[in-house]
């Protein structure tokens, strides 16, 4: 993927994409606002969620060992994966041991993060997505663009065409008379997936939460496909980020109130599935849990950035972000798009590694809407500014960039009173010259320069440039006789 500015420029040129995004995010925002307004203690719930997550992260090593012991006691096999390659190798190995050539999947950000589908395909194993939006993305040979609604960039007509053209090659074809009515599209997906549910011997899931003291994994979803994957196959493998652990069921209660309201705008999820190990004769008879690091301990070591590990993947920050609404998720070049992706990706990967990752902390106007919407109070603007400083530090040395030259020049001028005096006189003369390029009146009566010649036009083309004052503060002070 190119760096965010280049990818965003291409996305902004797609008017259909922008219409799709504006409609979808506007609808979700309205639903969320309505159900959040019903909860008088919403802010107290946010504070409680943040406190539980922070306390858990401070003692993460202890809670993970408690989780491992509880899972093993209930018959599950626990694997530890330091990175994506190791996690994919573990899952592929389990599939090969059972002579499986296809698996069904519950929607999972962690498995997308590690590229599990692609890794399994290289081993001759097909992974079928069963979430409706994920199915649309997979059949369309596309990429997810939203945490909650991966196909948010598609409208109904586009989805119908994807089903008609691609379903037959993947299994049961779409009906010949398929329309773009949502009920018919969902019905076609249901028939297509049913044979896969009944045939699959192995399923792969993630987990929204992992309760340490009972060894319980939790998945919340809206369609029931997760329940099918978690109960029908003989073997179940769950790939779980180590930050998903919560100590007790009492702690889980807080998040089951925060998550559905923040994500789908519902009071509770239609399906909340929990499972603790193996029950003879009921459900999968072999359970594996892969506890995934893949950069999370790197993020944990960052005293400012570690708050990103509170994230419960609700996508509320995406739905209120003016940047995301106009560019969509693909511009972020990651399975984690939007404001949370702009901080989570650099924290997991590290800065100074590639240009695309380093561009993400700048994919924000720092308006703060994401912090206000976040159910666990992640101060995303604070982390963005923190990461920007890390990106700058990572690129120190070598030929200085124009921005660095400008900052050093400003520091040289501002550090000496005589140099500042000369600069102020120059600004006064420049202010008079700028009048030739036109002025605009901003709200509140402030005046601004409308345009400047290149290269200064790169600034005035996207921002207001306040008009320089007629005289400097020092000149005004001398003229008015203030002592």
TrEMBL record:
Domain LUD, first and last residues per copy: 68-292
Keyword terms: 4Fe-4S, Electron transport, Iron, Iron-sulfur, Metal-binding, Repeat, Transport
Pfam family, one: Fer4_8
Domain of life, source organism: Bacteria
An annotated Gene Ontology molecular function: 4 iron, 4 sulfur cluster binding
Family matches, as SUPFAM superfamilies: 4Fe-4S ferredoxins, NagB/RpiA/CoA transferase-like
GO biological process, one term: lactate metabolic process
Chain ranges of the 4Fe-4S ferredoxin-type domain: 308-378
Keyword Acyltransferase: no
Record's signal peptide: none
Name under which the protein is recorded: Lactate utilization protein B
């Amino acid at each position: 993927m190119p760096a965010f500015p280049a990818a965003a420029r291409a996305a902004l040129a797609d008017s259909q994409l922008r219409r799709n995004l504006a409609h979808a995010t506007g609808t979700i925002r309205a639903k969320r606002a309505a159900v959040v307004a019903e909860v008088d203690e919403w802010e107290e719930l946010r504070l409680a969620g943040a406190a539980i997550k922070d306390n858990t992260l401070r003692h993460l090593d202890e809670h993970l060992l408690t989780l491992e012991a509880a899972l093993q006691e209930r018959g599950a096999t626990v694997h530890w994966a330091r990175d994506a390659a190791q996690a994919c190798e573990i899952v592929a190995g389990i599939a090969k041991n059972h002579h499986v050539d296809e698996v069904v999947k519950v929607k999972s950000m962690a498995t997308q993060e590690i590229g599990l589908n692609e890794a399994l395909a290289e081993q001759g194993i097909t992974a079928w997505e069963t979430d409706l939006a994920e199915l649309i993305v997979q059949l369309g040979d596309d990429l997810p663009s939203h945490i909650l609604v991966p196909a948010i960039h598609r409208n109904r007509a586009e989805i119908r065409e994807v089903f008609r053209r691609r379903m037959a090659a993947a299994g049961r074809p779409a009906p010949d008379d398929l329309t773009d009515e949502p009920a018919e599209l969902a019905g076609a997906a249901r028939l297509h997936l049913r044979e896969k549910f009944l045939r699959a011997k192995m399923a792969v899931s993630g987990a929204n939460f992992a309760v340490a003291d009972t060894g319980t994994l939790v998945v919340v979803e809206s369609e029931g496909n997760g329940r099918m994957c978690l109960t029908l196959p003989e073997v179940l493998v769950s790939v779980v980020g180590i930050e998903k652990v919560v100590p007790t069921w009492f702690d889980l209660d807080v998040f089951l109130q925060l998550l559905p309201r923040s994500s789908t705008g519902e009071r509770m999820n239609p399906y909340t599935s929990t499972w603790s190990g193996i029950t003879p004769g009921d459900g999968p008879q072999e359970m594996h849990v892969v506890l995934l690091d893949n950069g999370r301990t790197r993020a944990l070591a960052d005293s400012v950035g570690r708050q990103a590990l509170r994230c419960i993947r609700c996508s509320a920050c995406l739905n209120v972000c003016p940047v995301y609404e106009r560019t969509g998720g693909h511009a972020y070049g990651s399975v984690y798009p939007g404001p949370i992706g702009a901080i989570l990706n650099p924290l997991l990967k590290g800065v100074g590694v590639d240009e695309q990752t380093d561009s993400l902390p700048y994919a924000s106007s720092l308006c703060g809407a994401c912090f206000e919407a976040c159910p666990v109070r992640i101060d995303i603007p604070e982390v963005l500014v923190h990461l920007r400083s890390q990106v700058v530090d990572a690129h120190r040395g070598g030929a200085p960039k124009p921005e660095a030259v400008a900052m050093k020049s400003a520091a040289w001028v501002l550090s000496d009173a005589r140099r500042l005096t000369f600069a102020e006189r120059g600004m006064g003369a420049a202010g008079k010259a700028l009048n030739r390029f036109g002025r605009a009146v901003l709200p509140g009566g402030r005046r601004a320069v409308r345009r400047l010649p290149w290269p200064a036009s790169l600034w005035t083309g996207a921002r207001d440039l306040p008009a320089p004052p007629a005289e400097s503060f020092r000149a005004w002070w001398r003229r008015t006789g203030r002592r």
